Amino acid sequence: MDIIVCVKKIPDPEIPPAKFKLDMESKRVIPPEGIPPVINPYDEQAVELALRLKDKYGGKITVLTIDNDADTSIIKHALAMGADEGIVLADKAFEGSDSFSISHILSQAIQKVGNYDLVLCGRQAADWDEGLVGAIIAENLSLPLVTLAEAADVVDGKLKVKRVTLDGYQIFAVPSPAVVTVSNEVGQPRLPSGWGIISASRKQVPVLNAGDIDADPSQIGAKAARRSLVKLFIPVREKKCEIIDGETTAEASVKLAERLRKAGVI
Amino acid sequence: MSDKKEVLICGEVKGEKIITITKELMTTGRKLCIDLDQPLSFLLIGQNIQEAANEAILLGADKVYTAEGASWVESLPEHYVSIIVDICNQTGSSIILFSQTDMGRDIASRLAARLGAGVCLDCIELAIDPDTKSLLQTKPVYGGNAMAVWASTNNKPQVITMRPRTAAQAEPDTSRKGEIVPVALDVNNSMIKGKLLETLQEDVKGIRLEEAKVIVTGGGGIGGKEGFQLIKELAQILGGAVGISRVPCDEGWMPAGHEIGQTGHMVSPDLYIAVGISGAPQHLAGCSGSKCIIAINKDPEAHIFKEADFGIVGDYREALPVLIEKFKDLLA
């Protein structure tokens, strides 16, 4: 089974909130100093799901990313995990693209790759938390879509996908090729092996531009965006926590219970 | 297409009643309709929805479209998308509102793609710019570390999902009148790709998280399955429900259906006890609407203490047994 996985490089979402800074003037997030960007965790889980399918059925995994600095670091990470090939899409014309433009660029690249049975995307990117690209790619390519997957398998030549819901799950069967967005319930992605890292470092990662993938100039970049960012700000939370002290944790706990009773909370 | 545009709410029912989250959407929808001087329409898809359609009118809908068909949990999402695309094209919707539920999360983006519409998921506030009449959409980004305000720039419809608990529920007004318009389902089944094989709704034991007055939530600091025994006991004494954050969910210590946060349930109980939770914005996204938050954590620097009303710095293994006994006494 041949799988294409779309991945994105983002600022590390695990940084402590105190380190999160932005420039309100330019409406941009300032990358935290000394903390390198990472592959979007949900995309890393999409790579993991692809690898589980490859472990079972064989085939080739191709990883795509859009990065205008043509940085290959997260592609190399996916290759080190076990993906076979990677492509970076880079062009000045991509700058300022919204989710629809990003989806157009990725859809064009997917068609350029050509042979695939499945396209995987993370459920959302942990920077802008949009959760749109996978669904729009499916619409662009007229492919069936299953969102928020925690597992996928092949049964009778069809993809069987388990979708996470708030209080359970649903199982869908869809013909391939299909697009599936991957949720965190997939679990921990595998760590790259030593051999994986060596073999990834030897692999060439081609960089393609708008022309290479026949991107429609009217559908990419800031001018195509369907909305504009008016304001970006850090919400102010003015809560004062009353720390309940005690000689021991047990003593503090007794005091807390009494304090809650007094405050009418219980 | 009619000349007059309208705001469309895609409502959800459970057991023939409109769910609380949809009632919140009615409040948001009515406000937009006043600012835009447009009517409020309401779409219901399901079975035995007549009573809910009447209820929607009392809650603020001017027009209710009813499509008799399988309920969401028994349907292919594709089916719903086709129905909603048809209605939007026929009626000229300006804004299409969903809640950020299983349905909204799944449908909104593909609907927008098919309509050529703008889209924004998980908004917490909507407003109409008085000058440009464009829709201003406030949405948490970077896991809740920041808020973004987007403005629609094209004249196309805008598809929105609203985060639960961001508006008060609309109250019924028995004097309200409205129109119910049954919609024929003319979905060409050959267009539908795929099949729903199975739906499981786990019987969440005890109280549903969204309705719980008290929630006791365990995080990564609990350290494993065993620790949740104390969490459950504390929840039980207080008549509450058990929640978990991302770590116990991903590690499989508790069923994923208990997850609270950006990727799970959004709750706002009277009392929220966060045990062994660091307080990542992604988790707080799901519980910051709680009336009173209590944090129990070994690490005095944990971010959760910045969000809590009361805190204990200490080991939960020492704190919880004492709290359980003390609450037993106090509530006896």
What does this structure look like?
The complex is a heterodimer of chains A (266) and B (332). With 266 residues, chain A is of the alpha/beta class. Chain A folds into two domains: 3-224, HUPs (Rossmann fold); 237-266, no CATH class. Helix content of chain A is 27%, strand content 27%. Chain A is built from six helices and 15 strands. Chain A has helices at 41-57, 73-81, 99-113, 133-140, 194-202, 249-262, and strands at 3-7, 9-10, 21-23, 28-30, 38-39, 61-66, 85-89, 118-122, 145-155, 158-165, 168-174, 178-182, 207-208, 227-233, 242-243. In chain A, the strands form three sheets. In chain A, strands 11-10-9-12-8-1-6-7-13 form a nine-stranded mixed β-sheet, sandwiched between helices. A two-stranded antiparallel sheet of chain A has the order 2-5. Chain A has a two-stranded antiparallel sheet with strand order 3-4. In chain A, helix 2 crosses helix 5 and helix 3 crosses helix 4. The termini of chain A are far apart. Chain B is an alpha/beta fold. Chain B has two domains: 6-191, 3-Layer(aba) Sandwich (Rossmann fold); 209-331, 3-Layer(aba) Sandwich (Rossmann fold), CATH 3.40.50. In chain B, 28% of the residues lie in helices and 28% in strands. Chain B is built from eight helices and 18 strands. Chain B has helices at 20-36, 50-59, 77-91, 102-115, 228-237, 246-251, 281-284, 316-331; strands spanning 6-10, 13-14, 17-18, 40-46, 63-68, 93-99, 118-123, 125-128, 135-141, 146-152, 158-162, 179-182, 195-201, 214-218, 241-244, 271-275, 292-297, 310-313. In chain B, strands 7-11-6-1-4-5-12 form a seven-stranded parallel β-sheet, with helices on both faces. A five-stranded parallel β-sheet of chain B has the order 15-14-16-17-18. Chain B has a three-stranded antiparallel β-sheet with strand order 8-9-10. In chain B, helix 3 packs across helix 4 and helix 5 (228-237) packs parallel to helix 8. The mean pLDDT of chain B is 92. Chains A and B meet through helix 3, helix 4, strand 9, strand 10 and strand 11 of A and helix 4, strand 7, strand 9, strand 10 and strand 13 of B. Strand 15 (242-243) of chain A pairs parallel with strand 18 (310-313) of chain B, so a sheet runs across the interface.
